[in-house]
Structures are given as structure tokens and as C-alpha cells.
Amino acid sequence: MKAEDVIRFCGRSLAGYPLRTGLMLLAMAIGVAAVVLLTSLGEGARRYVAGKFTSLGTHLLIVLPGRSETVGGPPPLLGQTPRDLTVDDALALTRSSAVRRVAPLMLGSAPVSLESRSREAIIMGTTADMFEVRNLEMAQGRFLPPGEVGRAEAVCVLGQKLRNELFGNGSPLGAFVRIGQRRFRVIGVLTKKGESLGTDLGEVALIPVASASALFNRASLFRILVQAQSREAIPRAKKAILQIIQERHEGEEDVTVITQDALLATFDRIFKALTLAVGGIAAISLAVAGILIMNVMLIAVSQRTGEIGLLMAIGAPGKQIQRLFLSEAAMLSLVGAAVGLLLALAGHWVLARLFPEFPLSVPIWSPITAVGVALATGLIFGVLPARRASRLDPVVALSRR
Amino acid sequence: MIRLESIERIFQVGDERVFALRQVDLAVRSGEYLSIMGPSGSGKSTMLNILGLLDRPDKGVYQLDGRDATHLTDRQQAEMRRHKIGFIFQFFHLIPRLTAAENVELPLTLAGVDPVARKECVAAALARLGLAERAKHRPDQLSGGQRQRVAIARATIMRPALVLADEPTGNLDRASGTEVIHTIESLNAEGMTVVMVTHDPELGRRARRQVRMLDGRIVSDSGAGHEG
């Protein structure tokens, strides 16, 4: 029997039972769509997190006060509070050749007001280097001016949202706002860059670190952001940072340095595992679809007993009947998989519309695997009904009308 | 053409062994027109199934066209059925979702004949049986007589040497039954060997050679004398 005749024959017999065929296609399609969509969500989540980390800046190291790692060894005899990180600590880090830029970050919260309008905002005290280190972009004006770090200049840069809330449509540049009890001149507005690791940059006001120190009356930094010279310099920079801080803190290694790459790699691994797990769970629905196919094919075999008997009588050997039923299962799986891919495409489109910022992406292996698994389940679960059909006794089969 | 030698077929029904055929000998020459008659359970259907290679005898030898057909593999038997034997059933056994033409085409399709040659062959066969206008109709749109003629077209599309008919008129009214019998007889006139199983004594008498069966044995055979 020619291949196109097999396809036509199977197609006709599938079309002959539209409801049954439709339901099987639906089951297969849902399975395939689930695999593709869920893996694409997982992959999207991975990219989302990766994107967040890259938007933090490149070759970034973060220095936090206090040790968060647990290291073996005797407990300290005297209670040990971590020393504060200071602006001087930050400036000292520039001594290392592996370090390109350093930006201290002091964090606090204070009301920002213009005339009668007032908003509670996060105040970031930092230096001009923050601009490069954090990959920031200006919508208007300029960033904090470079120069003497100790100078408490009364200028500020506002986040986009804060600007809108205070100024509406008016131009903020050159205007004075009140932060806490001090007046600051607005010299720039950040672009809407969205959220980055929990801090919405739209709702912050950036001021020079010395001003922040005066405003909050403290010297301790929230963290220090360090940009290494290159990706290769990151481990060297980490070592240098620990060494410099240790020297300055009387031999105590009381800071933690997180490298962005290490974080990124960890998250990457987690999300890849997650994507695989979710895809695996979705693949179970494919297996369920396979069992459904087997069930319905078994019913089909018993309904079409007479036809099978006739095929035998007009000279089809058992093998050929087996092939016909297997082809039917394969066609069901393939068409179901195609419908599933379309379904996934539609779902993808809808999701992309609903969450435009979420970087949905289909990993190339997922539709291929989904279709492969669909075809394999169809064939595996098609074997039993096909064998049953091929082993019918023609006399018995023909006696059933 | 056909030579059966001491054929036995035994069915196990519960604890009992039922002899469907006992020690049956039969020889049919090429081009004969033979009817097998007998009451239900006399073994005539089993005989037809064995002749059609749908069933295997438990004992004895069956020679078809000079070849031992008793010890063929499943594939070889299918091959013989495809090329040498045409079946006509009481209940037509047309595939309901296929048109008349497609039903007739089926044996050619299974044999892997080229589509263009197939179409010609089918059109000619349908025209010969007066079914040309019904080619595109599905079985449920045809009368019983037309259905059986479609089934006959299908049985003979491969020009088999042997046509086996099992109560071909059993499910038809008198008029269409007669028409079907004429069709079958014309096949015989073309040289095909026809073996027909029937209850109907009137139908059976039409055949040139009549075989009577009872309890799995041939009790009378009008043509046994002249051996082929």
C-alpha cells in the first residue's frame, strides 16, 4: 500500500468519527501547548531575572556590611558587631587596579515636598560614579556632579514617578524641593527604567552622599557598589576588596562581597531546573493524552471489527492492518501536536499582550521535544490497539456485522 | 483448481469438541459453478472459510491452483486471498465512510496499484455492473441490490480465479436477489470459478453442480462422478 493511500485511508477513518477524533486531538493539543507554554514561562522567568541582574550594571560587585557566610571555627569570645562601612572605606577601594569605579550607597527614607505636595520617598545618597556603575539613564538634566565626595551639595536627581507626582507637567529642572528639613535643587530626572531588584527607581531621590549623611545624621553606608575593570577582573577585585576592608577594619573580615555573576549563575541554574521540572509536569499531560488515544483506539478496533475482517479477506496481512492503525495514531498525534503548537502560539500572544514587560521566550528545544513526545506517546499507546486489530480472527471479525 | 483431502475442522465449545468438518474430500475444476447447501450447522460456512483461506483446517490437505495452501504463512495466505480469491458476503461488508468507487478500489489500493490505473479499473468495473452513476454514493445511499453489486465489483476487481459467495442473496428482496445471481452467473460465464453457500434450495438448484452437507459431511454431490 502506498504511503499517500495510507494517509488518505487513515484520514478518512479519522474524519469518519469527528467527535472522537476531535476529543483526542484536543487532549494531544492541550498537552503539547502546556509543554510549550510552561517551558516558555520558565525560560521567560529566567531571562527576566537575568535581565534584572544585567540592568544592575556590568561587572558589578556588591559589598555589604557584616558576614553572612558561615565559616567553621571557634565562636568569637567577645561579642562582635560588624563595623560600619563608611564613605572612606568606599574611596579606599579605588586603590585596587582591578576596580574601575566605586559608588557608595546610603539609603534612607524622608518626605520630599514641593509647596504643599509631599511624598514619602526613598533617598539614595551616592556619588557621580553611580551613574556608570548602575547603568542609569537620564530623561532630563544631568546626574549628580562629580567632584569632592565630602561636599554636601544641595542638589538632587528625581525618579520619573516622583517627578510626575510633584511637578505634574511642569519642568522640575532648577526648582527647589524640600527633602526632610533641607532644600535641594533639582538638576535631573531619571528615565523610567522600572524596578530593579526590589527598588523602584521611579520613586527615589538621589542626593550626594555627604548630603545624605547630614540629612540622616549617620555615616554608615547601606552598601558599596563596585565596578570591576572587566569580567576577568571580578575575582581579583573581590579579593582586593576583602583585603582592603580587612586592613581598614583592624583585621576583621566583616563584610560580604557578592558578585553579580555568581548570583546570576545561581539563578540561572535554578530557573533552568525549574523550567525542566515544569516542562516535565506538562509532559505528564501528554502521557495522559496518550492513554486516551489508546483507550479510544481500542474502542475503534472493536467498533471496526467488521472492517478489519474485510481488509483481511481482501488480502491485507496482519502487519499491514497493524501499520494502518499505527499510522492513524501517529496522524492523530501529529495533527494534535500541530494544533497544540498553534494553541501555544495563541497563548503566547495573549500572554505577551497581558505582560508586555515579561520576556516570554520559547526555548528552541521545547516545541521539538513536545512534538516528539506527542508522536512517541501516540505510537507507544497505539501499539496495543494496532496489535489487537492485527490479531483478530478474520472469521470471527467478519461474522460481526 | 481446488482439491480438499480428508479435511477436518474441530471447534472446542466448552468441554465438548464439535466437528464442523469431518473427512471432507472435494475437487472443483476451474470454471465450475458449485453450490453448497445444507441446514445451519452443517459445516458449509466453515468449508467456505477454509476455501477462502480465512480459516485453517486441523487435518487434511488443501490445494489451491496446484499449490499447497494448508501450510502457508499469514503473509502468503493474504497474498493468495488478494490475487486469487474474491469474497461476496451476506451483509456486503462495505466500509460505510467510503464511496462506492472507493470501496471497489480498496483491494487495488491495498495491493499498491498506481492511482491512475486504479481509477480506470474501478470506473470500468462499476460501468460493467451498471453502477456508473452511483460511484460517488456512500453505501447508506444505495439500495441493498446496489450494495451487493458494489461488493461484487470489489470482489472481482483483481480478476480472481475463485469467487466465494456466502448467502449472497440472504439479505435481499427477491428482485434484487435475482439480479445479483445473474451478475454472479455472468462472472462464471467469464471463466471464474464460483462457489456459493446457500440455504435457498431454488438458488442452489441453479448451480451446475450441487453439494449437500450434513453434520460436517458431504452427503451428496451431483458432480462427484466426473473427476477433474
Description:
- The complex is a heterodimer of chains A (401) and B (228).
- With 401 residues, chain A is α+β, with helices and mostly antiparallel strands.
- Chain A has 12 helices and 12 strands.
- Chain A has 2 domains: 3-53 and 265-399, no CATH class; 83-253, no CATH class.
- Chain A is 53% helix and 18% strand.
- By secondary structure, chain B is of the alpha/beta class.
- Chain B has one domain (2-221): P-loop containing nucleotide triphosphate hydrolases (Rossmann fold), CATH 3.40.50.
- Helices cover 35% and strands 28% of the residues of chain B.
- The mean pLDDT of chain B is 90.
- At the A-B interface, helix 1, helix 9, helix 10 and helix 12 of A face helix 2 and helix 3 of B.
Number of domains of chain A: 2
- Known CATH architecture of chain B: 3-Layer(aba) Sandwich
Major sheet size, sense and barrel closure of chain B: 6 strands, mixed
- Fraction of residues in β-strands of chain A: 15-25%
User: Class by helix and strand content of chain A?
Assistant: alpha+beta
Instruction: Give helix and strand order of chain B, one letter per element, not per position.
Output: EEEHEEHEHHHEHEHEE
CATH class descriptor name of chain B:
Alpha Beta
Question: How many structural domains can be distinguished in the coordinates of chain B?
Answer: 1
Helix content of chain B: 25-40%
Overall, the morphology of chain A is elongated
Query: What is the 3D form of chain B?
Result: globular
* The CATH superfamily title of chain B: P-loop containing nucleotide triphosphate hydrolases
Q: Major sheet of chain B: order of its strands?
A: 6-7-8-3-9-10
Mean pLDDT of chain A: 86
Uncertain runs of chain A are none
Radius of gyration of chain B: 18 Å
Largest sheet of chain A: 6 strands, mixed, barrel
The secondary-structure class of chain B comes to alpha/beta
CATH fold-level assignment of chain B: Rossmann fold
